[in-house]
Amino acid sequence: MDSIGTLLSLTTFGESHGPAMGGVLTGAPSGVPVSLERLQAFVDRRRASGAHATARHEADRVEILSGIYEGVTLGTPVGFLVRNADVRSADYQLWADAYRPGHADYTYEAKFGLRDWRGGGRASARETVARVVAGGIAVQILERLGVTVSSEVSQIGTATDADSMRRQLDQARAEGDSFGGIITCTIAGVKAGVGEPTFGKLQSRLAAAMFTIPAVKGFDYGMGFAGAAARGSEVIDRFLPDFTTAANHSGGIQGGISNGADIYFRVAFKPVATMMRPIDTVDRHGREITVEPRGRHDVCVVPRAAVVVESMAALTILDAILLNRSSRL
Amino acid sequence: MDSIGTLLSLTTFGESHGPAMGGVLTGAPSGVPVSLERLQAFVDRRRASGAHATARHEADRVEILSGIYEGVTLGTPVGFLVRNADVRSADYQLWADAYRPGHADYTYEAKFGLRDWRGGGRASARETVARVVAGGIAVQILERLGVTVSSEVSQIGTATDADSMRRQLDQARAEGDSFGGIITCTIAGVKAGVGEPTFGKLQSRLAAAMFTIPAVKGFDYGMGFAGAAARGSEVIDRFLPDFTTAANHSGGIQGGISNGADIYFRVAFKPVATMMRPIDTVDRHGREITVEPRGRHDVCVVPRAAVVVESMAALTILDAILLNRSSRL
Amino acid sequence: MDSIGTLLSLTTFGESHGPAMGGVLTGAPSGVPVSLERLQAFVDRRRASGAHATARHEADRVEILSGIYEGVTLGTPVGFLVRNADVRSADYQLWADAYRPGHADYTYEAKFGLRDWRGGGRASARETVARVVAGGIAVQILERLGVTVSSEVSQIGTATDADSMRRQLDQARAEGDSFGGIITCTIAGVKAGVGEPTFGKLQSRLAAAMFTIPAVKGFDYGMGFAGAAARGSEVIDRFLPDFTTAANHSGGIQGGISNGADIYFRVAFKPVATMMRPIDTVDRHGREITVEPRGRHDVCVVPRAAVVVESMAALTILDAILLNRSSRL
Amino acid sequence: MDSIGTLLSLTTFGESHGPAMGGVLTGAPSGVPVSLERLQAFVDRRRASGAHATARHEADRVEILSGIYEGVTLGTPVGFLVRNADVRSADYQLWADAYRPGHADYTYEAKFGLRDWRGGGRASARETVARVVAGGIAVQILERLGVTVSSEVSQIGTATDADSMRRQLDQARAEGDSFGGIITCTIAGVKAGVGEPTFGKLQSRLAAAMFTIPAVKGFDYGMGFAGAAARGSEVIDRFLPDFTTAANHSGGIQGGISNGADIYFRVAFKPVATMMRPIDTVDRHGREITVEPRGRHDVCVVPRAAVVVESMAALTILDAILLNRSSRL
User: Residue B229 and residue B250: Cα distance in Å, rounded?
Assistant: First the structure.
């Protein structure tokens, strides 16, 4: 339940204001050099910076506890930690008995009967730091296989170019509001034949991975939602004599299996639910209350989420590549 | 790899023109009456009918082989079969050495080194009949828990009302073309607290399930892709004193866990790749060929796919409900 | 829950007196010729024959429904059936409301609230026929990898040579009693390096597989239970310059991973619980009853169980070999 | 691969001489008080002490990083660490290029192409400390369900009473030799109906769990290996009117499902492979060498292993109890 992946599998742990976030990455093949400097730089991409990001500043220094020896993967589980340092749980005290709208306070309590209310506990987006550590390792392994994962922010609010995006963010911040957006991710270099038929389709694994990221509300790949409105004759990917296709409406996947073209997909994020405005909500007893917001939050998580999307994509595709090794005798 | 679900798990088998499609549903709780008549009626909803559907007509009579005794589930695996009767493999002979564009012929061969070319083999949408058998059982179990799954075709091509949809289908058929569309599915009656945090989020399981359905290119839930462009202040779901919410932008899920509101999501299908037009493609040796289409195909699979979407939704939500039984001591 | 194996996975279904036993074998690599004649001969080894075996005679003809095309594995799920023909459920009517001692009647009902009482239902050893079908396929795949699985009956009751074994069986039959025994199984040809550290150790997977076989009460490998009483200096396997070992006390496994020597283990079976004697037991209401035995049973299942042991061993080792393909980059 | 359990699942990590051993326990139900003092005391039972144990002394202080808040389980993953402090890797330098007989040095290298040679790396029995942390939590949860797990050392070498055991250990130590032994474990208080049919049988899960413990060579339950030689008429467990049984040859399990009686089983350990004697072996190049032993080792691991056996039993039975919650609607 708290793991993802079949052969390459990640389990994470940690509450936002507990001692540490961390995880265990199992099934990473042995013999791969992993640069801890590059890994740290990858994790740093997720850190808050700039005017639109939360004021919480974590050093997010990665501690590798096992599975890498003398800079090379051993094939054994990679355990790792990132300490939580800059916590101000007092900011959240007011939520100990009340439910933030648009957050998981109420649903966690409905499920578990209790929750760690400090900083959103387990439901905090801080959980994603552990994914980025694992993803950063996967990215370095994938490189050796000629596979690269990249992403770009293709929409913030209604804006689709850099200037408008910045304006939207400035505006949201000035008004104490928030925006969502869309990230487009591309996986290049995957050979044809990766992915499993039926219930292990590549798009199914990718979608599953993306929807584990907090705030994600939509995923499509290739022609995606636009394909619903297209005619078959317009969007069919004609083969060329080298078995590549003239276009790539399919998004690099046919029947759940890669065809050698770039795999690309979009991930839609909702606006952040915590805004710098008074919040009308209810407490545990159903009493209506109005709360002045405290805590530190992003105006828009999308820029920071790009590396999370890449991480989940890297873990998913590496797992699929490993699985594919047993497809033929 | 060829199974889906954790406690309630479905494994399917069958090639389109082999002797039978079938599956095993494990983990269905014991003691639930299952009406085989109602199950057959549910499966019949998937059958081809009308002018826009394939001319292949299968009786699709469900044979239950185990797990149900005297009309009641035993708690043991439910094995079942649907025979393939109306097969015309000869229609497909021309594809034994060539790759249909927009299909999985090439990718299966890239993966496995060979394929059953008759009727699309394992990659045929006929595989979904086994899901509908299992889904039909899940639906009857869910009823006892007060949960219902329903769906509607909300878009075909560019059309969103019934008359326009019919016109688009007529037009596609006349022109030997095809259309995709969008199905909206709603799960009602799920209590708050169902779903797992982090990697077992309800939306992740639902998305994974939907993307295992052939031709699905997009999935979103709640405000979905539209949410990317919205302001946080517009889409936050304010709590009422009874812990329901004034609106349901969240789609019934917060932090991966149900909040008691309706769960709803959209599934986008691409147009059918096989059209009644000459097809330019390549054979196994990379030689360009043009093929006159044969075989029997739908102009648009969306109407028939609705019950497949409901089936996968039913299996997913029942699994999540069972999983949730161990969340508290 | 009702599946075994990670990459190569078997799910079975069927009640003893239902229409059929069957299963789905997923993850078998593509491109392997499978002789259906040899498969049938393998399954025939499990059939009852001789004076000490049950009088129930099933043809046990294997029906392959998918996954093998033109005699070669496709890489897709192999669905299969064996019909139940020679059922005499009336013999079991008397057990509909009573619990046979030494059987699972009571425990199934404690778990599920009801049971299929005909012929032991799902708990019948007839379930193992599905394993032998899958195992017979695994055996043919393993051959291509140079791996062979063999077994011998090394003990029946207290007898360890063929004449004494026969005498014990004759005696048990004459007295309406039953005996258990021990099967020794050897897997040869596995290269060094197969198996997973920690929780996927080869011995753990083999033991798990063996204890899923009805009536198995013990498993040990290499020096086994005898090793508990040995001195380290006596049982250490010294290396030779070619990395083989002088002796094989370790049973071909070190740290959960194969070392290239033969893997061998013992499986202990209890005596059959149904004997041809009046049985004192209780009914569902706790009333003491004495029952004259009916139904058809083996005096000793061990000879028929050998091929079941081999089947589970073959499935387990093939799975481990496939898993091992992802151990290194 | 590096996890065990279905709903309650443990993943461990750590090399013997790396910075720390640790793990993540997922699926522990929420709302259970966990005494960290009692947990530490449980882990302390595994620590080396006395004349026959290794001279390596680790404080083994448990650090809980998540999943327990204000002394109560949250239902979220419990991440934890135990630091490795008293490491003397230099003692192992001589094994960097040579293979210890009876250890996993060679097999790890055959599998992964490299290994962490310090202190046995991942294959060290030190790995079990993480299991005992998780097991100690499981034990506290089980108590609330009225289930207790206990064990006793029933054999060391050939000795079966306390005085003889001590003599055997003294002798082994004096001679630089080692002994194995047998642990008998009992699980009491499990209600009838726990365990899954077919591939999830309770005995299969228990055996699988025990064979993941280093040095385990045998497992049997109930009448075990002795049952192979018994007559059915002697060992059948007759029912009493309250559905308990007069005897308990079955070991508390019928058909893979608990019957309410005590579950008991034996676990056989081989003698420690490292002895205080010169060792003849080969290096990586196949050259014969003789090595004077260094490092710190137990003469017999069995006394320290008891709490490891209990831990694995506790994790397994709690998982089975949670799984059983979904058996009926």
Answer: 15
